[in-house]
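Morning!

This is the sequence you dropped in the shared folder:
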Amino acid sequence: MSVHVVMGFGPAGAATARLLAGQGRSVRVVTRSGRPAEPGIEHVALDATDSRLLAGAVRGAAAIHQCAAPPYHRWARDWPPLISSVCAAAEETGAVLVMLGNLYGYGPVDGPLTEGLPLAAAGAKGRVRAEGWEAVRKLHEEGRVKAVEVRASDFFGPGVTDGGHLAGRVMPRLLRGKPVSTLGDPDAPHSWSYLPDVARVLAEVADEERAWGRAWHVPTEPALSVREMVDLLAARAGTGPVAVRRLPPAVLGAAALFSPLIRELKEVRHQFDRPFTVDSTAYEAEFAVRATPVAEQVGETVDWWRERSATAR
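The structure's back. Tokens below.
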């Protein structure tokens, strides 16, 4: 049986590995620290920037699902060597390289985001993500690798915790009926990528040769603002209306003194201060995965957070 290698075991990597294992695939997860094996999933510990070690770990693989990411504040320094190593491993082994991307590379855009837009970001994080995909695409066009990129908006859903804008900073308080705070305009339309849908696309494109050589947006439900999402989540949780407060700039400035994450979010504030919507019709016209209906997304997310909270007691 061919192996699917998943790089990283954050929310997207874990969801993808478990989905593939559930489909009966042989799955190997590569992380720096390793983890105990689980049904259908082998865990390997190594430094993924070491191309020699990585090539050994992916030998014989049908696909490499690149879901790993350095700490947010170290992207500019650590992303290029990671992508270089993954490309070298894909070239040596012939495995399809499935890149999990995001929307930073576009920079501020008026109107819906489509895959045909230029990668015109000027900020450090947007540029490093854009340049990483451009390097991979060039290798694909030269026939040295087989590659595809899957671009997602902000993650939402079961398994999304500290890094999600509708996760660790929102759900525990929402479940207690407490007010929640948000970055940017709480009434600006915003596209959310449901994590199980992200995993399903990462799995689907690995087998679809006609998907390779370009980027695709994850199928996404129509954009809803933070306030609208909080209202849906609170209604599903039965905690009544929950107030949504915009974090004042002074509070964000003070938090940035102590939090590298808050400091780094300055570059992508445009995603929350104005409409930020994704057009995923290109993918939907070609492939099978469709966005999970938002009511189902909300229900599964509330149930997951309730179970998580109960386990933590």
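Headline: The chain has twelve helices and eleven strands.

More detail when I'm at my desk.
O.
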